[in-house]
Amino acid sequence: MNQLMFFLLFSMLLASCNTSLSDKETQAYKEKGGIISKSTGAELSGTLTNKMKSGGLVEAVEFCNTAALPLTQKMADSFGIEIKRTSLKTRNPLNKPSENEEIILREFEANIEKGIPLEPIVRLDQHGNPNYYAPVLVEKKCLICHGTLDQELSRAADSIIKSHYPNDLATGFKEGDLRGIWSIAFSKP
């Protein structure tokens, strides 16, 4: 009887220490992460576009400065996850990448240099929680705020941005560059 109890407890311990996901689980997290990042991105992008139309760059930058993080948090709360956008070249210091996110960003950059297409990935963190990471690529419309100074990014726009983000690093991008990643942390399965 003691051997059976030991075997059951040992099996439960091993199961709780699982350090990998099955292909099916990985695919499910990729699908969930894709849905969440697309809907959050659409919410942010749609609101930003409306702000650009109604109040120009001043209103758009104000939105990014004061409302983008709360909107992202609202989406995170509605999905029951943690979500953020981060980059190696942040505009808002609150979006600084974690150690794991920096590793992913560097992997994506290396893949670009090797000509390997970027795909979302799922990895377990140090606590065994699944994390979804998806690349965010620069679109042409992004260059008004994230392009190269005196090219796509005007001095006036740069001045408005710097008034809200004095330590801005998020410029000098070209269309198709890796702007950053979506990082979504799910609870342990």
Automatic annotation (TrEMBL):
Domain Tll0287-like: 52-186
Lineage: Bacteria, Pseudomonadati, Bacteroidota, Flavobacteriia, Flavobacteriales
The name this protein goes by in its record: DUF3365 domain-containing protein
Pfam families reported in the protein's UniProt record: Tll0287-like (PF11845)
Organism in which the protein naturally occurs: Lutimonas vermicola
InterPro entries linked: Tll0287-like_dom
Lineage top rank: taxon: Bacteria
